[in-house]
């Protein structure tokens, strides 16, 4: 459905430490990294880029938007949330069912240390 998403950061090199570990819980590999840019995913699939804003202005987290990553199991959602909190993220919604979305929806929401909101979600039956 999409090619990539971009997450702003004042220090992408430092943010990469968080994203390496947190996205690693979901099996999402680092695709490439160079000074000021970290990319996750695969060349031919969806990707996430963590970068400084291109306009040179300070990074400001959005309000009302977030990036949701697919998890293959509820255990992965739990691990994602726990790892994010361990690395300085904050909870925006503990792991659990969200039946108002659909009967098998299981998700967790966090903010990275810079305030960007991300989520892990599993759509499979328990």
Helical region count? 2
DSSP strand (E) fraction? 25-35%
Q: What is the typical, i.e. mean, pLDDT?
A: 95
Low-confidence stretches: none
- Biggest sheet overview: 4 strands, mixed
CATH topology: 2,3-Dihydroxybiphenyl 1,2-Dioxygenase, domain 1
Number of strands: 8
Shape: globular
Class inferred from helices and paired strands: alpha/beta
Order of helices and strands: EHEEEEHEEE
Helix coverage percent? 10-25%
- Order of strands, widest sheet: 1-4-3-2
Reading off the top of the CATH hierarchy, the class is best stated as Alpha Beta
Number of domains: 1
Measured distance between first and last alpha carbons: 25 Å
Query: What is the correct CATH architecture?
Result: Roll
Full CATH superfamily name? 2,3-Dihydroxybiphenyl 1,2-Dioxygenase, domain 1
CA radius of gyration: 14 Å
Description of the molecule:
This protein has two helices and eight strands. The two termini are about 25 Å apart. The mean pLDDT is about 95. The chain has helices at about 10-25, 75-85, and strands at about 5-10, 30-35, 35-40, 45-50, 65-70, 90-95, 105-110, 115-120. The strands form two sheets. A four-stranded mixed beta sheet has the order 1-4-3-2, with helices on one face. Strands 5-8-7-6 form a four-stranded mixed beta sheet, with helices on one face. The chain is of the alpha/beta class. Helix 1 runs antiparallel to helix 2. It has a single domain, classed as Roll (2,3-Dihydroxybiphenyl 1,2-Dioxygenase, domain 1), CATH 3.10.180.10.
């Amino acid at each position: 459905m999409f090619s990539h998403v971009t997450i702003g950061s004042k220090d992408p090199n430092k943010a990469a430490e968080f994203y390496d570990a947190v996205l690693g819980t979901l099996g999402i590999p680092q695709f490439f990294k160079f000074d000021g840019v970290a990319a996750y995913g695969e060349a031919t699939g969806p990707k996430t880029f963590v970068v400084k804003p291109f306009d040179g202005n300070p990074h400001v987290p959005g309000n009302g938007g977030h990036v949701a990553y697919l998890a293959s199991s509820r255990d992965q959602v739990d691990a994602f949330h726990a790892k994010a909190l361990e690395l300085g993220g904050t909870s925006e919604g503990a792991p659990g069912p969200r039946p108002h979305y659909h009967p098998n929806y299981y998700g967790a929401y966090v903010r990275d240390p810079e305030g960007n909101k991300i989520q892990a979600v599993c759509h499979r039956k328990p």
